[in-house]
Specification:
By secondary structure, the chain is α+β, with helices and mostly antiparallel strands. The protein has 3 domains: 191 residues, 2-Layer Sandwich (Aldehyde Oxidoreductase, domain 4), CATH 3.30.365; 151 residues, Aldehyde Oxidoreductase, domain 4, CATH 3.30.365; 331 residues, Aldehyde Oxidoreductase, domain 4 (2-Layer Sandwich), CATH 3.30.365. Helices cover 26% and strands 22% of the residues. It has 17 helices and 28 strands. The strands form 8 sheets. Strands 11-12-9-19-16-17-18 form a 7-stranded mixed sheet. A 5-stranded mixed sheet has the order 14-22-21-20-15. Helix 1 runs parallel beside helix 3 and helix 13 packs parallel to helix 17. The radius of gyration is 27 Å and the shape is globular. The two termini are 13 Å apart. Keywords: Oxidoreductase, Signal.
Length: 731
């Protein structure tokens, strides 16, 4: 199969605006504290806040504080819309800022959870941020009414202007904000019905677009501080290995080099006046590794362990009903298949980085993070200081996808380096090679499926055995349930608000034989929903063809008790024209799943040449997230998710040799290019009554829709990804 990405044309890159040292750095109202101790929320603000969520300045600028992280997914704009909706302010005057996790700790977590992952940015905080906006509105109106000596009930608000109905007098939020801050906050507020929204639910322009376009957006990689030094680091390429020795004297005299530092047991860093000088010296530094017990592990040895798990007698059960063994024994026909997915890298455009400033009394860190509170905990632990003596300042992320959420290894390294240079800010920046060698990879799994079919082609039993890694066992063992990792079963559960299978099968068993190689797993965008959707939806396609049934009709027969699953599946079928003949040489595939609280389905049109060259022409996706905060943003998320999902399906594989990941840059770990990207048509169909995510669910339907279409085109089943390793010439 020919899937080699074409070389991208060379284009001129705009120069990023130089950051200037001073009392504060501002990008669209985002405040990066600098110098830190003078510009945190703990310092006396020029303008008093109305409440923790809202500051209204005398010039009518409305600052909305956002605790969740912005990494391209639009959470910043969506949450600001929800607050502004209840506040009834002028959207044109809205700016935003990140409150720091240290202040959240000091104020008894007034901003709630800082974790931004699992498509939870909006759906897990919509209620309390809306209440924050509504409470601020109450206080502003009460302040105006108090000044006029009238009942607040006689006042109305429109776009930040408060008007007293009987007298016609009016004032603005900015004029009464200082007095509003003195008003007792309401104990309870009534939130608007979504049908009455005028700001939320609308396709408003994102607040962070312009700074990204003109190059003024500040990312962690850009940050400058007075006296800043730069660090490059190299960790043992084999997880579990350590530093045996290194020769600091060999590079200590190189230009700009300040220090050579061992970081923990397994890494060495060079600190210099510029990053390039630090990296150049590190490249020249003689290091001897003790690669430890994992140095002989390979993709082949890992695959053998997973194959053993497919036949293991013991496994953790995630979904069970009826008697699967009996159904298989009495079946008119049994269909069996084994699928698998490899390790995959997050491959964020911005490598891991953090800037740390350590003194014996205090430690401060500036970093892109999906979870400011977790970054603060990592900072305090590495600094050897209480969390109350530490602070983390969040910066926009140049990609996250889960890598910058659950683990903060780069933050710990930055602090340990800064401890060796007290009072000097040090920016640690991983190289691309370091970033890809020391990721937290999408877990490798295999899945064997066996289905029982009766003489009429009805599915009477299904056994799915997943063999592979547990993310929680490695990252959050406290979240395990009696040894079982519930995340493994995303999209395969019998029901619930997070993810449900969507089919009624009388006899079912889905279990997990946990096998954990030394390559560390992590929450990779879409997590276990992605492979599980491939396994189930491609196998459903196999069953339909094995019984001579239409793949859509076969699924719909099993979905009478799952109306929301059925609705999105039918929507993509109708949109792509499932019942009509496609263009000559074009073939279709279809699938559905549920994850992260949302119902999604996908349909793809592909062609495959006689030489096995795949062309994905079109993808249709339907999403029911319950409520839609910004429809335009959701459409962009859907399109972006297909870039991510198709990149993984076509190219994404990390292989292991001599205990280490072999793919260290984009030459060996390619991603989707624009000329290969299909047209994406998004169907947004919010049914109300619940809050689902939109950043991750549709990733899961990218691969199975295409894989099922490939079978229709070629008669070949692709059961092991990525596609680049498969000969797609017709069977």
């Amino acid at each position: 199969m020919s899937l080699e990405p074409k070389a991208a044309p060379q284009v001129a890159r705009p120069t990023r605006r130089t950051l200037l040292a001073g009392a504060g750095l501002f990008t669209l109202g985002f405040h990066i504290p600098f110098p830190a101790r003078a510009a945190t929320l703990g310092a006396a603000p020029t303008t008093p806040e109305v409440n923790a969520w809202v500051v209204v300045k005398p010039d009518e600028t409305v600052v909305i504080r956002i605790a969740r992280s912005e990494m391209g997914q639009g959470t910043l704009t969506g949450l600001a819309q929800l607050v502004a909706e209840e506040l009834d302010c002028d959207w044109a005057r809205v700016t935003t800022e990140y409150p720091s996790p240290g202040q959240n700790l000091a104020r008894k977590r007034v901003w709630g959870d800082y974790s931004t992952g699992g498509s939870r940015g909006v759906r897990d905080s919509h209620e309390y941020v809306r209440k924050g906006g509504a409470a601020a509105r109450f206080m502003l109106v009460a302040a105006a009414a108090k000044g006029w000596g009238v009942p607040p009930a006689e006042c109305r608000v429109e776009r930040g202007v408060i008007t007293h109905g009987p007298s016609g007098r009016s004032t603005t939020y900015g004029a009464v904000a200082a007095e509003a801050a003195k008003i007792e906050p309401p104990k309870d507020v009534t939130l608007k019905d979504p049908k009455d929204w005028t700001i939320a639910g609308k396709p408003l322009k994102r607040l962070d677009t312009l700074p990204k376009l003109d190059g003024s957006q500040v990312y962690g990689i850009d940050l400058k501080l007075p006296g800043l030094l730069n660090a490059a680091i190299r960790d043992c390429p084999v997880t579990g290995g350590s530093v045996k020795s290194f020769e600091a004297a060999a590079v200590s005299g190189m230009p700009g080099v300040k220090r050579v530092i061992q970081v923990g047991d397994s890494a060495v860093a060079v600190v210099a006046d510029t990053f390039w000088r630090a990296k150049t010296a590190l490249d020249a530094l003689p290091i001897v590794w003790d690669e430890g017990p994992n140095a002989k592990v390979s993709s082949e040895t890992i695959a053998a362990v997973l194959r053993e798990g497919l036949d293991a007698k013991e496994a953790f059960v995630g979904n069970k009903a009826g008697d699967v063994a009996g159904a298989l024994k009495g079946a008119a026909k049994v269909v069996e298949a084994v699928y698998g997915v490899p390790f995959q890298n997050h491959a964020t455009m911005e490598p891991m980085n953090a800037t740390a400033l350590w003194t014996p009394e205090r430690c401060e860190v500036w970093t892109p993070t999906q979870n400011g509170e977790a970054a603060l905990a990592a900072t305090a632990d590495a600094a050897g200081l209480p969390a109350t003596s530490c602070e983390v300042y969040k910066i926009h992320l140049g990609g996250g996808f889960g890598r910058r959420g659950a683990t903060h290894d780069w933050v710990r390294q930055a602090v340990l380096i800064a401890k060796e240079m007290p009072g000097t800010p040090v920016k640690l920046l991983w190289t691309r090679e370091e970033d890809m060698t020391h990721g937290r990879y999408h877990p490798v799994t295999q899945c064997r499926m066996r289905a029982a079919l009766d003489q009429d082609g009805n599915l009477t039993g299904l056994h799915m055995r997943i063999s592979g890694q547990s993310i929680l066992a490695a990252i959050a063992p406290q979240r395990m349930v009696e040894g079982r990792d519930p995340v493994t079963f995303q999209g395969l559960n019998p029901g619930g608000p997070e993810a449900a299978i969507g089919y009624t099968i009388p006899n079912i068993l889905i279990d997990h034989a946990m096998r954990n190689p030394h390559i560390l797993p992590g929450f990779w965008r879409g997590v276990n929903l992605n492979p599980n959707a491939i396994y189930l939806e491609c196998f459903m396609d196999e069953l339909a063809h094995a019984t001579g049934q239409d793949p859509l009709a076969f699924r719909l027969k099993l979905m009478d008790n799952h109306p929301k699953h059925r609705a999105v599946l039918q929507a993509v079928a109708d949109k792509i024209g499932w019942k009509t003949k496609p263009p000559e040489g074009v073939y279709r595939g279809i699938c559905q799943t549920m994850g992260f609280g949302s119902y999604v389905a996908g349909a793809a049109e592909v062609s495959v040449s006689d030489q096995g060259e795949l062309k994905i022409h079109r993808i249709v996706a339907a999403t029911d997230p319950g409520h839609a905060v910004n429809p335009q943003q959701i459409e962009a998320q859907v399109a972006g998710s297909f870039v991510y999902g198709l990149s993984a399906a076509l190219y994404g594989a990390c292989t292991v040799k001599d205990g280490r990941i072999e793919q260290t840059n984009f030459d060996s770990y390619p991603v989707m290019k624009m000329d290969a990207m299909p047209a994406v048509e998004a169907i947004l169909m919010p049914s109300g009554g619940f809050w689902g995510g939109v950043g991750e669910p549709t990733i899961a339907v990218a691969a199975p829709a295409v894989l099922n279409a490939i079978f229709a085109a070629t008669g070949k089943r692709v059961r092991q990804l990525p596609l680049k390793d498969t000969d797609l010439r017709r069977a």
